[in-house]
Design goal:
The protein is built from six helices and five strands. The radius of gyration is 18 Å and the shape is globular. 31% of the residues are buried. It is 38% helix and 17% strand. Strands 1, 2, 3, 4 and 5 form a five-stranded antiparallel β-sheet that branches. It binds flavin mononucleotide. Flavin mononucleotide (FMN) binds next to strand 4.
């Protein structure tokens, strides 16, 4: 796929199905993630893969953790949280392991993790898959981080759902540069 065509036309996929990337495709996806710009070579990226056969367990635990966050969550909400794990054949949780650094603040390390997520999404699309970048309350829940084997101080940048597009792309209106870009007049 032509790189410029991909960059100018990429979209998130709202619904994903089998197949997801295989091991060598996933390796390519992560190699591109590790090309993310990274101030000071801190390599803040951490990725946790939820493979297809672990999604049910992951979904059950996410539902239990929702219950702890929101004790009055309804059975429907708990079931919905559990079923989110089945939205795609593969899920990647992308985090920044933030280091205390005299010149490189946390925001720059999290931005690098965000750039890694974008590389994941673009590479997935380039090799025929699609993705959806999500977060929500679980991304900010210390218990979720612990369940995933992350540190309390890690910052989850994205919960990325990966697979084959099923149905529509995101209907987001694509704005024009003129509304967002100004040229400094000096
Ligand atoms: C950090 C981050 C977190 C996001 N979290 C969610 C989310 O939890 N749920 C959601 O529907 N979209 C979320 N989005 C937005 C979608 O990933 C997507 O960008 C949006 O639906 C627009 O589609 P597009 O990527 O095709 O422009 C998030 C985006 C970012 C950058």
């Amino acid at each position: 796929m032509d790189a410029l065509e991909l960059l100018l036309n990429r979209t998130s996929a709202l619904k994903l199905t089998e197949p997801g990337p295989n091991a060598s495709e996933l390796d390519q996806i992560f190699r591109s993630a590790l090309r993310a710009p990274d101030h000071g070579r801190l390599r803040p990226w951490r990725f946790v893969v939820i493979p297809s056969d672990k999604r049910e367990r992951y979904g059950e635990l996410m539902s239990e953790l929702l219950h702890l966050r929101t004790p009055d969550a309804t059975p429907e909400m708990l079931a919905g949280e559990r079923d989110k794990a089945l939205r795609a054949p593969l899920i990647i949780i992308a985090a920044a392991r933030v280091k205390d650094h005299p010149k490189i603040p946390e925001v720059e390390q999290v931005l690098s993790a965000g750039a890694a997520v974008q590389n994941i999404m673009l590479t997935a699309e380039a090799i025929g898959y699609r993705a959806m970048w999500r977060t929500g309350a679980p991304a900010y829940d210390a218990r979720v981080k612990k369940m995933l084997g992350l540190d309390d101080t890690d910052v989850i940048a994205g919960i990325v759902y990966l697979g084959t597009r099923a149905g529509g792309s995101s209907p987001a209106v694509r704005p024009l540069p003129a509304d967002f870009v100004s040229t400094w007049a000096g």
